[in-house]
Amino acid sequence: MLMQATDLYACSVCQGNPDSKLVKGAEAGVLLMVFVTYGLLLGMIGLGATWFVRQRRLIARSGVAGAAEETDSSGESQSA
Question: Is the Cα dihedral 9, 11, 14, 18 positive or negative?
Fold first, then answer.
């Protein structure tokens, strides 16, 4: 049985025929998975960066509003 095993039953991917539709489909599938994976990763990084910037702006706004509330009617700061 081992003596009769040939490359006859191997698929075109195993044989290495680069012009086969099966090889081209496998290459397209790999490229699609790369684009989807990195697209999702970049999207999650972008979402995290957006949340970070929004939080920093909220902190800055609340700091400015808090400083304005600390001044009395004469315009002097109560913390000084």
Answer: positive
